[in-house]
Amino acid sequence: MTYGKRLSYLIVIDSIIVAFAIFISTFLLNYNDFLTSKPIVASSIVLLLGHHFFSYYYNLYKRAWQYASIGELVVIFKVVTFSVILAALAQFILLQDIYFRALSITWMLHMLLIGGSRFAWRMFRDTYMNTRNKKKRVLVIGAGSAGMMIVRQLRQSVDSDLNPIGFIDDDIRKQNLEIMGVPVLGSTEDIEDQVRQLEIDTIVIAIPSLSKIEMKRIYEECSKTAAKTQIIPMIEDLMTGKVSINSFRDVKVEDLLGREPIKLDTENIAETLTGKTVLVTGAGGSIGSEICRQVSKFNPDQIVLLGHGENSIYTIEMELKNTYGDAITFIPVIADVQDRERLGEVMKLHRPNVVYHAAAHKHVPLMEANPHESVKNNVIGTKNVAEAASDADVDTFVMVSTDKAVNPTSVMGATKRLAEMIVQQMDNISATRFVAVRFGNVLGSRGSVIPLFKKQIQTGGPVTVTHPDMVRYFMTIPEASRLVIQAGAMARGGEIFVLDMGEPVKIVDLAENLIKLSGFSVDEIGIKFAGVRPGEKLYEELLGKDEVHDEQIYPKIYVGKSINADLSVVMDFVKRFEYMDKLGVRERALDIAHNRVNSEKEMLYAK
Questions:
Q1: Where's the Polysaccharide biosynthesis protein CapD-like domain (predicted)?
Q2: Which is catalytic among the residues 362, 383, 404, 537?
Q3: Cα–Cα distance for residue pair 500/558, rounded to 1 Å
C-alpha cells in the first residue's frame, strides 16, 4: 500500500472516530440541542480539524503501527489532549462556557478508539500473522535487555521463522514472571527439562556480556538437548550498529575456551609502535599475518612483510592495503630466514625499530620426519634473523615460541627451545632487547586440530583423536598475536613471556563439542583413537619447574626465570651443523640433528 493511500484511509478512519466520540458523549449527557446548536457544531469541527493538525504535527500518520509501543501511546495522548483543549477554547470563545463533562467523555472515547485502532493492528500481526505459519520454537537464555529485544523483534518480524516460547534466567527475582507476555520458566539448571517438555527447536543465548566461563557452563547444559544452540552478536557490534539483535550466529569453539581474552596496555604499545618501522617474519602465516593486523591498529610508519611464500605475502599485503590505504606503508619482501645475507640486506635497508619473528616450522609429526629442515629453519633461521636485527640496531626483537619448548620430547619443541636460548644469548651480547613469547595451541592456525576435525565431520567421520587423555592449552589467533605485541612493549631483555591460558582442554572434549556445534551427535560421526604420534606428549607445560615466577607481571601474563643453560654446547652444535651443511655432507648434518635434537637433547639444560 502506498503512503498516499494509507494516509487517506487513516484520515477517514480518524474522522469517523472523532465524530463518533462527540456523538456518544452528547448522547450520554442528553444534550438534545447538539444538532441545532451552531456553536457546539463549530467546536466539534474545531476538534476534528485539531485532531488532524496535531496528528500531522506529531507524525501520527507516519508511525509504523505493527511496531507500536509506549512511544506511540504518548503521541496519541498528546494529539487527543491538545485537540480537546483546542475544542474547549473554541467553546469558551463561542459560548462563554465549556462543556467539561462532554469534553471529558469525548477525550476518553477519543483515546480509547484511536489507540485501540492503532494497537489492534500490532496485536493482529503478533498473534495471527506470526503464528499462521509453522515456526521454530525458541527458548531465550537471559531475560535482560538483550533477551527482551530479541522477543520484541521476533514477534514483530513476519519473515522470521522463530517463535519465542519462554525465558531462562538465573535471577530469582524474575522467576515465574512474564516479560512481554513470555514466561520465565526457570534457571539454567532447568534448560534440559524445559527443552524436552516444550519441544524447543532452538536455544538463543541472549547475554552479550557473558564471560567465557559462564558461556561454557551454559553451553554444556544446552548440549544435553537436541535443540540447536545459537548466540547473539557481541555487545560492541550491537552498539555500533554493525549487526542487529536478531543476527544470531552459531556458537563457536572459541566461545567455549573458558578464559577471557587479554586486555592490552594500549598506551605502552603505542609508544613502541606508533610512527615506527616494524618487520614481521613469516608475515603470510597464521600468527604472522595476525600480528601485522594488530600492529597496524597502532599506526606504525611502515610494516615490512617478510615471508618465503609469495602467495601468502601477496594476500596479506592486499588485505592491509585495502584496510589502511596509504596511511601505512606496507613493504612485501620475499626472503628465506635461512638466507643470512638476504636478511642482512633487508634489515639494513629498512632499519626496523621492532622485529616480530614468527617464521618457523611448527608441525610436530612432520618435523620428526624432517629434523634437518627443522633445525635449519627454527634454529639457524632464528639465529640469522637475530644477528641481522642486532647488526641493524633494532630496538626490540620478539620471537614467537611454543609451550612445546618446555621439557621437549619432539624435534619441533627442541628446536624452538634452542631458538629461545639463542635469543637469550643474543640479549647478553647485543644492544637490542631480545625476548621470547610462549603460548599453547592456536585455534584456526594452519595445521591445527580444528580444521582437521571439521573436514572429518564434513566427510561423515569418524573424528580421529590421538589419545583419550590428550590435553592441550588453547587460545585464538588474535589473542596470541596481541600477547606477542604486548610482550614487545614490556620487553626489558632476556625474558620469556607466558600467557596464563587457563585450564587445559581435553582434545576428546574439543572433538565432541565441535561435532555437536556442527549439528551432529557423537554417535552419528564417531570418535576414533589413533594413538599418540611421534614426538607428542599427553600434556603440555608453559614453564619448566626452574622457570616459574609465581606473580603476574601484567594481568594474565607471566615471565619465566632465566635458567643457567650451557650455551657453549648450543653454539657449538649450531656451528658444526652449519659447517657440515655448507660442505654438502647432508648425511653428517642430519646425523648431528638426530643425535643432538631428536635423541639426547642434553644441550638444552645444564646438568
A1: 278-560
A2: 404
A3: 7
Active site residue 556: no
Give the per-residue pLDDT at 601.
44
Of 299, 366, 388, which is closest to residue 536 (Cα–Cα)? Answer: 366
Report CA torsion sign: 589, 594, 595, 598. positive
In terms of CATH architecture, what is 136-251?
3-Layer(aba) Sandwich (3.40)
Query: Domain spans of the chain?
Result: 3-129, 136-251, 266-442+473-501+544-599
Strand-strand pairing, 496-499 and 557-560: antiparallel
Residue 44 near residue 15 (C-beta atoms within 8 A): no
Q: pLDDT tens-digit profile of 248-286?
A: 776 766 666 655 666 667 788 888 899 999 999 999 988
**Residue bearing cell 619473528:** 357
Name the grid cell of 125: 500481526
Distance from C-alpha of 148 to C-alpha of 179, rounded to nearest angstrom: 7
Q: CB atoms < 10 A from the CB of 4, how many?
A: 8
pTM, 2 dp: 0.65
Check if the beta carbon of residue 106 is closer than 8 Å to that of residue 22: yes
pLDDT at 161: 74
Residue 393, amino acid: D
CA distance to 57, 80, 116, per residue, from 83 (Å): 12, 5, 18
Q: How far is the C-alpha of 571 from the C-alpha of 59, rounded, in Å?
A: 81
Q: How far is CA 25 from CA 21, 46, 93, 115, in A?
A: 6, 16, 21, 18
Q: How far apart are alpha carbons 79 and 59 in whole angstroms?
A: 10
| Domain covering 266-442+473-501+544-599 in this structure, CATH number | 3.40.50.720
494 Cβ contact partners less than 8 Å away, ≥ 6 residues apart: 424, 427, 428, 434, 435, 562
User: Cis omega (within 30 of 0) on the bond before 365?
Assistant: no
Low-confidence ranges of the chain (pLDDT < 50): 132, 239-240, 242-243, 245, 585, 596-607
Residue 489 burial (10 A CB sphere; 0-12, 13-18, 19+): buried
Q: CB–CB of 324/368 below 8 Å?
A: no
Is the separation of the CB atoms in 51 and 79 below 8 Å? Answer: yes
Distance, CA of 267 to CA of 552 (rounded, Å): 19
Q: Give the pLDDT confidence score for residue 535 in this predicted structure.
A: 61
Find all residues with CB under 8 Å of 555, minimum gap 6, and list them: 262, 263
Query: Which residues make beta-bridge pairs with 194?
Result: none
* Residue 570 DSSP SS3: helix
Distance from the Cα of residue 59 to its chain's centroid: 40
Residue type, 399: M
Per-residue pLDDT at 74: 80
pLDDT of 155 reads 74
Q: How far apart are CA 471 and CA 17, in angstroms?
A: 72
CA–CA separation, 449 and 179 (whole Å):
43
pLDDT at position 457 is: 85
Residue 243 has a pLDDT of 47
Least Cα distance to 306 among 293, 324, 288 occurs for 288
Sheet with 496-499, strands from edge to edge, namely: 329-334, 302-307, 277-281, 354-357, 396-400, 433-438, 496-499, 557-560
Cβ atoms within 10 Å of 99's Cβ, excluding its own: 20
Amino acid at 562: S
Q: How far apart are CA 347 and CA 350, in angstroms?
A: 6
